[in-house]
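User: Can you model how magnesium ion sits in this protein?
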Amino acid sequence: YRTAAVIPAAGRGVRLGPGAPKALRALGGTPMLIHAVRAMAASRAVSLVVVVAPPDGAPEVKNLLDEHALPERTDYLVVSGGDTRQESVRLGLDALPEDVSVVLVHDAARPLVPVDTVDAVIEAVRDGAPAVVPALPLADTVKEVEPGAPGEPEPVLGTPVRARLRAVQTPQGFDRDTLVRAHGAVAVDGEGATDDAGMVEQLGAPVVVVPGHEEAFKVTRPLDLVLAEAVLARRRA
Ligand code: CTP
Ligand code: MG
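Assistant: Here's the modeled complex, given as structure tokens:
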């Protein structure tokens, strides 16, 4: 294998509301996780996909991978996840065979990322960048605040220049050794790191941004499911 994709899918999806673990919820009748696996396997460069399943959910995820049509040129592995995204990614990295040199980390919660975005990230890593992040300019202006009690007015500390900000997506692409080093060096603190590239930044290694895609949005809240269904329906039309 040269390039592998690790898909953290072990989260509950608290912000999506009650129901099955988020990655197992249906989108257009198919579990979100299967869409995400297909999105990675759609790239001809990806020869292995490692799914990090919800704790206790590994047998169910294995069954799902068996039941759904997936490209045969790709291998699939399932491991159990941890309490935080950071731990889940690390458990996925631990399962990689030795000959993997480029690693993508892709949220199961971004089921609709187009293959051109995946390929662009892989190409930038193969061209020599140790860490590559797809990202988009922001639509909203962002304010930094002093967080207060829920519902209470919060003092504004500042307004970063919007044109310099990017909202980051996945798949993020890495030189394998760089990402493994980052996960070895950065301790899990509270909720853990939500962004792998941020951990590489902490090492002092360079991180670059390439254009992301609107359809690589993360399904986080109920409204995101509405949008995801609409994007799928448009693709199928
Ligand atoms: N993730 C994971 N292991 C965890 C927590 C999150 O593998 N312990 C994964 C999720 O399954 C998801 C990705 O990390 O694919 C991005 O996280 P997020 O969108 O925050 O998903 P959840 O943590 O499941 O959602 P929430 O924060 O609303 O509970
Ligand atoms: Mg989360």
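A couple of observations from the model: The mean pLDDT is 97. Residues 11 surround magnesium ion (ligand 2) (CB under 6 Å).
User: Helpful, thanks.
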